[in-house]
Amino acid sequence: MPDIIETFSARGDLAHVALLMWALTATALAGFALRELTAAIRRFDDFVRELARFNDIFKDRSGDR
Fold first, then answer.
1. Is residue 8 part of a domain?
2. pLDDT one-digit tens code per residue, 23-60
3. What pTM was computed for the model?
4. Does residue 10 belong to any structural domain of this protein?
5. Domain span at residue 47?
6. Measured at the alpha carbon of residue 35, what is the angle toward residues 18 and 54, in degrees to the nearest 5?
């Protein structure tokens, strides 16, 4: 690993390595956020479906149609 860092620093490409690390980190964080958002939307959809099912069950029992 020190050889790689020395090679990049000797050629002046350390900024490119930093940019690559930033891009990889930003992409990973965006992917994680998208995955969490998808899971939250799925949980909310499940909640709304259960709520609608609950309302349908008790709507039929009360006689209000």
1. no
2. 999 999 999 999 999 999 999 999 999 999 999 988 87
3. 0.62
4. no
5. 16-62
6. 160
Residue 1 lies in a domain: no
Question: Residue 21 pLDDT > 80, yes or no?
Answer: yes
- 40 assigned to some structural domain: yes
Torsion-angle region of residue 64: left (phi > 0), alpha (psi -120 to 50) or beta?
beta
Dihedral angle of Cα 34, 39, 44, 49, to the nearest 10 degrees: 130
Query: For the chain, what is the domain count?
Result: 1
CB-based contacts of 17, cutoff 8 Å, min separation 6:
8
Q: Give dist(CA 37, CA 48) in Å, integer.
A: 16
